[in-house]
Design a protein that fits this description.
One of its GO terms (biological process) is rRNA base methylation. This protein is of the alpha/beta class. It has helices at 11-17, 25-34, 92-105, 125-145, 160-172, 210-218, 233-247, and strands spanning 5-7, 21-24, 42-46, 51-60, 65-75, 82-88, 109-113, 153-154, 176-180, 186-187, 197-202, 222-225. It has seven helices and twelve strands.
Length: 251
């Protein structure tokens, strides 16, 4: 049975310092008051950026802090290729679902995309920060639930023009951008994925506009299809990541 997982952002520093490890703050409170960890119990600690430790709970200090001893620890290697999902903003009820499913399937990062046909509009600083906060929370929760050692990062929201620049930058580093389109001629199985990075572009429920499709294609994005069915925006990245997983060394 896998161990319950908690995120300690300064885990690497704590391990380097030696002595007891501390699980505190919201994660400590969740472990102690919600999951009711007990002294002597083993849990998994992750930094979110690759450092991990299997640890034993030595003592509980109140309702939101515990002292632990590291039983084993290490550093998870980064997968190759690294996969970023450029996710067009879904409607509110599907927004966090898209991040949850993509995280479970192994996405390394998410890039929120304000596409032309998005029903959701992240306009104004407060709305943008609220949306980003929800995505970060969903990514962390899904990473812990699926026992991931790395938590996907969430970048700032991108316009189509900014996404075009991101694709150009990616290609200059030897990466490939895959634009998921149900009517694309090339199946994902025929793509050359022996690259350091992949950017998956997932459109909104209303589809990518012809103008956006042309702009992204001009920047170097390759149109690919996942299969005969048309997938919803919340599940498309999960299916694509599964395909990439078996077509590369990621899995």
């Amino acid at each position: 049975m896998s161990l319950a997982t908690y995120c300690v952002e300064d885990l690497a520093e704590q391990l380097a310092a030696g002595g007891s490890l501390r699980l505190r703050g919201p994660e400590g409170r969740h472990a102690i008051t919600v999951k009711r960890v007990r002294e002597g119990e083993e849990i998994m600690l992750i930094s979110g950026t690759g450092t991990w430790a299997r640890a034993r709970v030595d003592s509980l200090l109140g309702k939101e802090e515990a002292l632990l001893s590291a039983l084993d620890h290490g550093e998870a290697p980064e997968p190759r290729p690294r996969v970023t999902v450029a996710q067009a903003l879904p409607k509110s009820e599907r927004s966090e679902l898209a991040i949850d499913l993509g995280t479970q399937a192994g996405a390394d990062a998410f890039l929120p995309w304000q596409a032309e046909h998005c029903v959701a509009k992240w306009s104004g600083a407060k709305k943008v920060e609220r949306g980003l906060s929800k995505w970060r929370h969903a990514a962390l929760a899904a990473a812990k639930q699926s026992r991931r050692l790395r938590v996907p990062t969430i970048s700032d929201v991108h316009s189509t023009a900014q996404l075009v620049e991101a694709i150009r930058d990616l290609r200059s580093r030897g990466g490939v951008a895959l634009l998921l389109e149900g009517d694309a001629g090339q199946p994902i199985a025929e793509c050359d994925l022996d690259v350091p990075e992949v950017l998956l572009v997932v459109g909104p429920e209303g589809g990518i506009s012809p103008a956006e499709r042309a702009e992204l294609g001009a920047a170097g994005a390759q149109e690919v299809r996942l299969g005969p069915e048309v997938l919803r925006t919340a599940s498309a990245s999960m299916v694509a990541l599964a395909a990439i997983g078996v077509l590369t060394q990621r899995w």
